[in-house]
Amino acid sequence: MPDATWTEIGSVDELKQRPLQQIVCGQTKLALSYKDGRFAAISGVCNHIGGPLGEGRLEGDYVVCPWHYWKFHHRTGQGEPGYEGDQVATYAVKVEDGRVFVDLTPVTKRQKLPKQSHPLARPIVRADGPVRVLGLATTAMTADQPRFSASDSLLEEALAYAHEHLQLDTQLIKLRDLSFRACEGFYSKAAEACTWPCSITQMDPTDQMDRVYEAVVHWADVILVSTPIRWGGASSLYYKMVERMNCIQNQETIANRHLLKNKVAAFIIMGGQDNVQGVAGQLMTFFAEVGCQFPQFPFIAHSRGWSAEDMERNNSEVQNSRELREGAQALVGRAAEMARLMVEGQLAMHPLARGGRKAHQLDSEPTG
Ligand code: FES
User: Fold this and answer.
1) Could you tell me if the CB of 340 is within 6 A of ligand 1?
2) Where are the transmembrane segments (predicted)?
3) 208 C-alpha to center of ligand 1: Å?
4) What is the full DSSP assignment across 260-278?
5) pLDDT for 242-289, tens place per residue?
6) Buried b (16+ CB within 10 A) or exposed e, 42-58
7) Spatial contact of 67 and 190, defined as CB atoms under 8 Å apart
8) pTM (two decimals)
């Protein structure tokens, strides 16, 4: 008979089928490994933000967390070389009569190394000053082979007008100048696996999406997005960006945090092809879901329609259109005015129900 402190978790034949598995014994989650003919157990809860280690994989002697890939030795519980001080609890395991037993009193305890928080994680405090307009250009082109872009040119027109005539602060980010990874769908592993700041941003210092996050979350009052129409949708870089901005929306879901409070979004949509309405719907849906406000008439657009195949004429039409240039100026003017009202607290704040999916109030960040 086993000692009273041992808990039976299954048969050897069954448990040795998998090199790593999550075992739950009451309140205790274990990552049980089977390697070189031996069982070992460490805590099944990752030191990072609690990912299920037993659902990861065994890579050599290390258990790799499935959420953000931290590694812990499958026997000692220690982090990988250089991070040995980051350690998850270990448990004694024994085999008797073809059955596997675990002592749920840890042999070694969990230890965490102090961590530096990412700069983007700081509180969101709006610095004093005039309304700030961020232009996000999403069209793709070879950086050292520049050409005319209808969407870029109207965005630049709007920013110049905001700076020179409205005396606002402006900033332009061209997504094509940034090197950033595609969203890897951490949210699909578990809601908590999608973090703010973005998991990729925290893990990969070479990823330049942090510049967009910094500008959108910590700097801008107005977010002015320009896009071409490509096959009836926005540009591929636009979608790549907003997929990475899932972490902003996800904070509403998992932490009741509204990171884009008091922000106004507006759009410039230019296409030789048609489907302005579809693209506008895509853009507005996303920015509505991250809690942005829209001015009246929140986008300007131009399209010559489905049968217009001579794109060079589209460019010359936009270049020569005073109406579109004035439209871009008026758009940024409307958006900035809406932002001013919000920044000055002249618009009533209402409880923010999440897109009709779950009616609860969000705790917003202080905006200073
Ligand atoms: S690496 Fe395990 S939870 Fe993030």
Assistant:
1) no
2) none
3) 22
4) TTT-EEEEEEEESSS-HHH
5) 999 999 999 988 888 889 999 999 999 998 788 999 999 999 999 999
6) bbbbbbbeebbbbbbeb
7) yes
8) 0.90
Q: Where in the chain is the domain with CATH 3.40.50.360?
A: 119-354
Residue 32 has pLDDT above 60, yes or no: yes
- Whether ligand 1 lies within 6 angstroms of the CB of 70 is answered as yes
Average pLDDT for residues 38-49, to the nearest whole number? 97
Nearest CA to ligand 1 atom 3: 51
The domain made up of 119-354 has a fold known as: Rossmann fold (3.40.50)
Ligand 1 centroid to Cα of residue 10, in Å, is 27
The alpha carbon of 64 and the centre of ligand 1 are apart by a number of angstroms equal to 9
Residue 365's pLDDT band (boundaries 50, 70, 90)? Answer: very low
What is the reported pLDDT for 232? 93
The answer to whether residue 1 scores a pLDDT higher than 70 is no
d(C-alpha 22, C-alpha 11), whole Å: 15
- Ligand 1 pocket test, candidate residues 22, 43, 67, 247, most atoms within 8 A of CB: 67
What are the backbone angles phi and psi of residue 363, rounded to the nearest 5°? -85, 120
Indicate the top mutation candidate among 49, 80, 115, 203 to test ligand 1's pocket, ranked by most ligand atoms within 8 A of CB: 49
CATH for 6-103? 2.102.10.10
